[in-house]
Design a protein that fits this description.
Keywords: Chaperone, Cytoplasm, Protein transport, Translocation, Transport. It is found in: Cytoplasm. This is Protein-export protein SecB. 29% of the residues lie in helices and 37% in strands. It has a four-stranded antiparallel sheet with strand order 1-4-3-2. It has 164 residues and is α+β, with helices and mostly antiparallel strands.
Length: 164
């Protein structure tokens, strides 16, 4: 019976839409434009502990559509999930929160973003799949580079690292 309490546990407690905003600063005139918009997508992932063995993981997507120099729409959504994670080795916890949890909640966010764009009167934007493992590795590399850049230990008044 004691062995059961030490079994690794990864369980979804809840998936929810934490934040969703839509801006159409140039409507209704933007609907008269014939040109196809350019689409920019930004992604961010976060996680935080809520209680012992309970974590919140978030994926934030910002979609900006522009026609010429005018913003057609800007949609930002943050999908979150609460996960119970127990008896996972420490070296596996960060990748689980940065890769596994986002893989679970991202499909919900994709659907919510597409729905908001369609309801705003625009053609749907279908967000592609995201390889969160590659995204996680890129974040680790950026963090390592940032730490290497700040290795002098001297921080300037503006928060930047001193350069030699």
């Amino acid at each position: 019976m004691a062995d059961e309490n030490l079994q690794p546990l990864f369980q979804i407690q809840r998936v929810y839409l934490k934040d969703l905003s839509l801006e159409q600063p140039n409507s209704p005139a933007i609907f008269l434009e014939q040109e196809q918009p350019t689409i920019e997508v930004a992604v961010d992932v976060g996680a935080q502990p809520l209680a012992e063995g309970i974590f919140e993981s978030t994926v934030t997507i910002t979609v900006t559509a522009k026609i010429a120099d005018k913003i057609a729409f800007l949609v930002e959504g943050k999908q979150a999930g609460i996960f119970e994670i127990r008896n996972i080795p420490d070296e596996q916890l960060d990748p689980l929160l940065g890769i596994g949890c986002p893989n679970v909640i991202y499909p919900y966010l994709r659907a919510n973003i597409a729905d908001a764009i369609t309801r705003a009167g625009f053609p749907p934007v279908h967000l592609s799949e995201i390889n969160f493992e590659v995204f996680y590795q890129q974040r680790l590399e950026a963090l390592a580079q940032q730490q290497a850049d700040n290795s002098s230990g001297i921080v300037m008044a503006d928060g930047s690292a001193a350069r030699h």
